[in-house]
Amino acid sequence: MFLFKHAAKSIELIDNFLNIIDQGAILFKEGVRNYLYGNRENFLSNLQTLSSLETEADIIKRKTENLLYTQSLMPQLRGDILKLLEELDNIIDLAKTNLFQFDVEIPFIPAELNQELVKLTELSVSAIESVIPAARAYFKDPESVKEKLHRVYLYEKEADKLADAIKRRVFHEMPNLKLSEKFHLRYFTLHIEILSDAAEKTADVLSIMAIKRTI
Amino acid sequence: MLLLIFLSSGLFLGWSLGANDAANIFGSAVGSKMIRFRKAAIIASIFVVLGAVFQGRGTADTLSSLGAVDALAGGFTVSLCAALTVFWMTRYAIPVSTSQAIVGAIIGWSMFAGLPTNYNVLTKIVSTWVSGPVLGMAFAAGLFLLLRGFLRRTKIHVIKLDSYIRISLIVAGAFGAYSLGANNIANVMGVFVNAAPDVFLNFGLFTLDGVQLLFLLGGLAIALGIFTYSERVMHTVGNGILSLSPEAAIVVVLSQALVLFIFSSSSLSAFLMSMGLPAIPLVPVSSTQVVVGSVIGIGLVKGAREIKLKALGEIAAGWVVTPLAAGFLTYIALFFVQNVFKLPVFSGKVQGTPIRPDTITAVAENATEIDLILPAILAMAALAIIILIFLVFRQQKLRLKTENELLHQQNNYYQAQKTLSGMEVTAVHLENSLLSQKLETKRREYINIALNISSQREFLQSVAAKIDEIRLVGDQQQLLEQLNDLSLMVKQKMNFSDETEELYAQIELIHKDFRQKLANAFPDLTEQEKRLAVLLRLNFSSKEIASLMGISPKSAEIARYRLRKKLNLGKGESLTFFIQNL
């Protein structure tokens, strides 16, 4: 049966894709940490790996799209599934672009902010890491998607709060910094925080998809 | 032949049944693109015919017991009136069932023939109309709960589930088609049972009697309806009323199939009777109404979000309106057929007792037997060979297609590569020509410099000679004159600065051909005159030429006049025009 062959192939592709997003999130976290603590070499290696993972994710996404449409698998759900893949791909795209920004712009980050920025990165990445099990559950057990998603919303909210606090601190309590440096710091806080927003958007898409699938 | 003409109304009814009711079975699957229409149509057709031939008798017997239409013209009229009722009511968008129309028409016939209607049978039939959808609802609700529980527990990956669902849709659809054929063939052919030919075909594996042949014909009419007209209905229904999730679609098709099967299976009924339970009434029910019941059943399980009371009301209205309309129409039509066309619409024999199923079978046993074992085997073999050849050809075609595709892709790739190389070549050419132009300019410059140097040298020599000459002059007046000449000569020379030389070099480069032509046509032109010609070609005015050449405007005019002379121009001819068109 060709049908089962194609089904197995697309299941494998989607699993791989989710693994890549997961790994991408970890690499982003490591990359930011290495940048903050000045491990330039490790940072560059993280960037390199993340960039190749992003390319791979794009390729897999396109392959899956192709397979679902040419073999007309799941005519009713494929639109949703592809949208989910799109959102997840967006996360790893953002992670790569943002880490590249560190490499290109080399922002000056005062050492007293390191701790907080690391925490912000961890929160953002946790949001991503919580959305992935929910995405996996959508395929096998849509009923449990909702209970997995609440963590994403929590992490996103915490990341928002922390980012706010960092920005406030930069603009109010660091008079030694130049305005340009403050702006720069604001942007990089945003670059990290935006990943949790992307995770939240994915979570929104997922929760609607799960409701549609619950019969 | 006459038989076929009379059968035509039944066949028409069969066609419309196929066109409308196949959508109940494959509507959701085709509408949601889970199964392609062609596949669905082939499966539905095969199984409708099988169901009609092998299990269609039970419901036909029930219709016969309601009123055994025993004259062909009567059967024709009854069938036609049922078909017309269905047609009209469908046109006015009233949901209608063939089963109800045919029952009404048969009652109309009974009343016209003056026969008593068997109220026992009628009650049985009407109760089935009600219990059909209700049973569908119950089955659907039960099956849906089972399926949902199963899916929740097994946690199959959604993509794998999709594959299973496709296969289940096909299997359930086949079962549904079989049940539809079995249950509803009586609507199509029931009234013609008495006119069935007395033959008995033996195919070895199975046998077909006259009634079954009649049903085969009806089944084929249904299949024709499926192929010719049901695609549109499937898409409409599949994206409208039956726009269900694939899981729900399976449940609906399956519960519909079960209901139709139960109300048409004589063996199941006999089995129940042997267990001491009441027999199942074998009655044609409306598949559409069962489907509506099933959809409502699922809605109930899901929390009664989508129950449309209007749909229920319309179904109930159909139970009353359709038979009444069909019966009334039949009564009037029979009157016309009998009195205007003078055709017998009933045999006139008194029929107090309904025909039992075994009477039809008894007729069949007395029929002439035709042995078709050998032809059947041959036909099967031929069919197998044809299918084999078809498969081989298709395989071949697919392979060729793939190869072609590959070649096409490669070709595309080469074309793209070629275009790219072409573009590179053009770019290189362009660069080359630019370079050679630059080279040419440089060459010109150097030539000019060289010429300049030699002309300077010549000039200096002539100046030296002049000075020598002046030295020898004794007369003061003459000496002054000659010195003035010398000073003028030097001043004139000074007017030809480097920039002017540069300008001429550039102009000469651009108008290389022109200078060539000029030199060929008029070899005795001086360098000065050639320059004048070039400036004229560039459309400079006399004033501009004068300043460019370092002479007075008057001299420029004179130079022009001399040039005209040398170019042999007549009075009316324009010098500029001549030069520009050279």
Question: Brief overview, please?
Answer:
Chain A is mainly α and 215 residues long.
Number of strands of chain B: 3
Largest sheet of chain B: 3 strands, mixed
How many domain modules of chain A?
1
Class from helix and strand fractions of chain A:
mainly alpha
Main sheet of chain A, how many strands, which sense, barrel? none
Mean pLDDT of chain A: 92
Cα shape of chain A: elongated
Low-pLDDT residue spans of chain A: none
- Which two protein chains have the largest interface (Cβ within 8 Å of the partner's Cβ), and how many residues from each? A-B, 23 and 21 residues
Taking Cα atoms only, what radius of gyration of chain B do you get, to the nearest Å? 52 Å
State mean pLDDT of chain B (0 to 100 scale).
82
Structural class by helix and strand composition of chain B: mainly alpha
**SS field, number of helical segments of chain A:** 6
Broad CATH class of chain A: Mainly Alpha
Helix content of chain A: over 70%
What sequence of helices (H) and strands (E) makes up the elements of chain B? HHHHHHHEEHHHHHHEHHHHHHHH
The stretches of 5 or more residues of chain B where confidence is low (pLDDT under 50) are 350-364
Strand coverage percent of chain B: under 5%
Please describe the topology of this protein:
The complex is a heterodimer of chains A (215) and B (582).
Chain A: H1 2-36, H2 40-70, H3 78-105, H4 111-140, H5 145-172, H6 179-213
Helix pairs in contact in A: 1-2, 1-3, 1-4, 2-3, 3-6, 4-5, 4-6, 5-6
Chain B: H1 2-31, H2 37-55, H3 57-66, H4 72-91, H5 98-113, H6 119-154, H7 158-189, E1 199-202, E2 207-209, H8 210-239, H9 246-262, H10 266-274, H11 287-302, H12 309-339, H13 357-366, E3 368-371, H14 373-472, H15 476-495, H16 498-510, H17 512-521, H18 527-537, H19 542-549, H20 553-566, H21 575-580
Parallel strand pairs in B: 1-3
Antiparallel strand pairs in B: 1-2
